[in-house]
Each structure stands twice: as C-alpha cells, then as structure tokens.
Amino acid sequence: MMKLAQEGLLSDLAIRYRDRLTRFGFHYLQTFFESHQVTLHILDGQTDEKSVQEELVEDLIAIITSFSGKLYGIRSQKNKIVEEKVKGVLEDVANLPNEANEHSTT
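^ Recombinase family protein, sequence as received from the core. Prediction below:
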C-alpha cells in the first residue's frame, strides 16, 4: 500500500478499524498517506476523540501484547523441542535390554 501511495496509484484507503492498518503508531501512517495525497477512510464509526494519554496507553498495551505473543511462541517452540528430546530418550531407554531379566536367567 505504501509503495502504491508513493507511486501515486492510490488515492483512497478504506479500513474497517484503525488497528487493522497498524496496532500502534497509526498517526505515522496517517501522516505518510496524507503526504502522498491518500485519503484514509475509517469505517468503524468511532466518533469520540481520545486524549493523547489514552492513545499512548492503547499503543503501549498493543506493544506489550505483541511481544508477549512472540515470547509465548518462543517458549512453546522450546517446549516442543524439549518434549521431542524427552520422548526420544524414553524410547531409547525402553529399547535397552532389561538387566534384571538377564541376571535372573543366567
């Protein structure tokens, strides 16, 4: 979209909700598009203006949510690797000859 705006191929951009365009930093994108004569249309019908503090809090929450998701994803991947290795070790142990049975039969 940004490349289309830079090339002058985009004049209007309609989005349902602001956070569908970006989770935080909406005003940066809005300024970018306006500087390339692209009109943003937000269709969510939200007419109440938020204070700067409210917007900053929402941006901070969006950032924390994003990083938390990434951290949980990393942890999940590590847990899967550990689980696979443990299963491999358990299978190896299960395939070892039973020493108790060997001693009693000799």
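The first strand starts at residue 12 and ends at 15.
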